[in-house]
């Protein structure tokens, strides 16, 4: 491969309950295979042990499918990429150990990638011409955070959730309403027929001057409302209004905090990524705000909002271009469940170290 040629990578993502593999060449996605584990629906949430067992069973066929769909053989690969953190430690270990074994067998460099960096740079999958710097809102079942992104490997955490992530709030409310798991899509679907002003749902930390989030109070508010107004269960005709009210509260907090960051950072481009970025009300609210405020909005398509391996491969490619393959010949890296914490509880450069 010439110095100017794009790298061809096989990427693996197993941070939670999606087993994913992708083949990318430069910023082009040749295949992006994803298997969402359905076993967790019966338990109302992800069971870590079941997730890691499912990854063990699925990872090899998923990798083979990704290579076949890309019409790429192992000998055509220049490098491998794998998610190392944060996430469920058992799930991460399956992907990391599989990728390390493959790297040894194929004698290829392997790039460890932070899952959140994958979401942050998924905007490049949607728009390969996306330029730095930009503001990124990562909003998912496990994470809600704002980043100022200057380049690959140069990011600043502006704020994160102090308790529940936005997606977690959707899932917990859905559980209270008997809507099953995952709850976000069910609430989104019902909310389309509901009145978002029907119920007074709190907007936690909306007036707080930081860029931190808090969504645990929404679950508590809904539980109190159900006990007070619907002790015998929510009537079916009320569900759309309740879902719309909860969704409006979560979306307003996400939007208002992001717009405050746009003003402070003088951001001209905003990327909204992660599983909750697939929510229709959130996408519409951000699109209206972008038109009104004049900033450029990048919303990855739905397949790139979910936990996918293409975003991991893209980050790895960008790091290979900057540091070179020899930088990634070591196998000393490990998997880690390391979570995000608020910048107020961290040293000034800790956010950058988290994403290395």
Mean model confidence by pLDDT: 91
CATH topology value of the largest domain: Nucleotidyltransferase, domain 5
What is the CATH class of the largest domain? Alpha Beta
> How would you describe the shape?
globular
Biggest beta-sheet profile: 5 strands, mixed
Per CATH, the superfamily of the largest domain is: ATPase, nucleotide binding domain
- Tell me roughly what share of residues is in helical segments: 40-55%
In CATH terms, what is the architecture of the largest domain? 2-Layer Sandwich
Strand content: 15-25%
Extract low-pLDDT stretches. Answer: 342-356
Notes on the structure:
The chain has 356 residues and is of the alpha/beta class. The protein folds into 2 domains: 8-122 and 308-354, ATPase, nucleotide binding domain (Nucleotidyltransferase, domain 5); 132-304, ATPase, nucleotide binding domain (Nucleotidyltransferase, domain 5, 2-Layer Sandwich), CATH 3.30.420. Helix content is 42%, strand content 18%. It contains 12 helices and 10 strands. The strands form 2 sheets. It has a 5-stranded mixed beta sheet, sandwiched between helices. A 5-stranded mixed beta sheet has the order 8-7-6-9-10. β7 (144-151) and β8 (154-160) form a beta hairpin. α1 runs parallel beside α2 (89-106). The radius of gyration is 20 Å and the shape is globular. The chain starts with 7 loop residues before the first strand and ends with a helix. The model is unreliable at 342-356 (pLDDT under 50).
């Amino acid at each position: 491969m010439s110095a100017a040629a794009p790298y061809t990578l096989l990427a693996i993502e197993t941070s939670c309950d999606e087993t994913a593999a992708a083949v990318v060449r430069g910023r082009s996605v040749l295949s992006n295979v994803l298997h969402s584990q359905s076993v967790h629906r019966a338990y109302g949430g992800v069971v870590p042990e079941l997730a890691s067992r499912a990854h063990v069973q699925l990872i090899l066929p998923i990798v083979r499918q990704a290579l076949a769909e890309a019409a790429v053989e192992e000998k055509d690969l220049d490098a491998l990429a794998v998610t190392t953190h944060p996430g469920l430690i058992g799930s991460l270990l399956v992907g990391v150990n599989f990728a390390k074994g493959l790297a040894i067998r194929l004698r290829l460099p392997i790039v460890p990638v932070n899952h959140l960096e994958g979401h942050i740079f998924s905007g490049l999958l949607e728009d390969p011409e996306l330029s730095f710097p930009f503001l990124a809102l990562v909003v998912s079942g496990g994470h809600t955070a704002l980043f100022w992104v200057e380049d690959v490997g140069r990011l600043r955490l502006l704020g994160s959730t102090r308790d529940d992530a936005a997606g977690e709030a959707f899932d917990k409310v859905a559980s209270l309403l008997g809507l099953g798991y995952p709850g976000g899509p069910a609430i989104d679907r019902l909310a389309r027929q509901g009145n978002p002003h029907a119920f007074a749902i709190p907007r936690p930390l909306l007036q707080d001057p930081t860029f931190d989030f808090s969504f645990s109070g929404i679950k508590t508010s809904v539980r109190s409302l159900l006990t007070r107004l619907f002790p015998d269960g929510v009537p079916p005709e009320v569900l759309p209004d309740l879902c719309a009210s909860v969704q409006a509260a979560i979306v307003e907090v996400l939007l208002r905090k992001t717009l405050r960051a746009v003003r402070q950072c003088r951001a001209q481009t905003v990327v909204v990524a992660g599983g909750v970025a697939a929510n229709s009300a959130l996408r519409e609210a951000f699109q209206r705000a972008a038109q009104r405020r004049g900033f450029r909005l990048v919303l990855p398509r739905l397949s790139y909002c979910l936990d996918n391996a293409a975003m991991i491969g893209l980050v790895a490619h960008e790091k290979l271009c900057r540091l070179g393959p020899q930088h990634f010949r070591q196998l000393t890296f490990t998997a880690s469940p390391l979570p995000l914490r608020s910048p107020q509880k961290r040293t000034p450069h800790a956010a950058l170290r988290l994403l290395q």
